[in-house]
Specification:
eight-stranded antiparallel barrel; mainly beta; 1 helix; single chain; Porin; 171 residues
Length: 171
């Protein structure tokens, strides 16, 4: 009986002790990343530099700037007579990253300047997205986001795609 009691006491104490051990979540976030965007940011394709600033546990700020391309949106029946206008885009953003692990939520705003012959050279938009952070040895990044422009509606020559995905690596 003494053995059973001692064994049960030992097991209970070890389980209680194990419950008190905090398993640290690695916050070795790689602060810099290079990303390739497919759609979103008023671009068909864009390349970005992204920098993270850790404000507190579970809260970071992200700044991003990049360069991309977009093309004039046209619907032509029977063929178009001339080539579509190409635009160079310069997207940028400031977002808050919320979450304590590798999987986070992104909220913020951004804008894109369009260089080229367009009726509206700037789009401003809020951003909501999911972000996979580059932690420790896991250097890959991923973002999926939605953006709805609050300015730039006056243009009819740019197709603004409100969703985008981004792949990259942290360093």
């Amino acid at each position: 009986m003494k053995r059973i009691f001692t064994t049960c006491l030992f097991l209970c104490c070890s389980l209680v002790g194990h419950g008190q051990i905090s398993i640290p979540v690695s916050r070795d976030v790689l602060k810099n990343s290079l990303q390739l965007n497919l759609a979103g940011d008023a671009s068909l394709l864009s390349f970005h530099y992204d920098r993270l600033f850790e404000v507190s546990k579970g809260f970071m700020l992200s700044t991003k700037f990049g360069v991309g391309i977009n093309q004039e949106f046209r619907i032509c029946f029977g063929g178009c007579y001339d080539a579509a206008e190409l635009y160079t885009t310069f997207p940028h953003h400031l977002t808050a990253i919320l979450g304590g692990g590798r999987h986070t939520v992104e909220l913020g705003f951004g804008g894109t300047y369009l260089s080229g012959n367009t009726t509206e050279p700037y789009f401003f938009y809020p951003t909501l997205g999911y972000r996979l952070l580059p932690l420790g040895n896991m250097q890959s990044t991923f973002r999926a986001f939605v953006q709805f422009p609050v300015s730039g509606f006056e243009t009819e020559d740019i197709l603004f795609i409100p969703v985008g995905i981004s792949f990259g690596f942290g360093f």
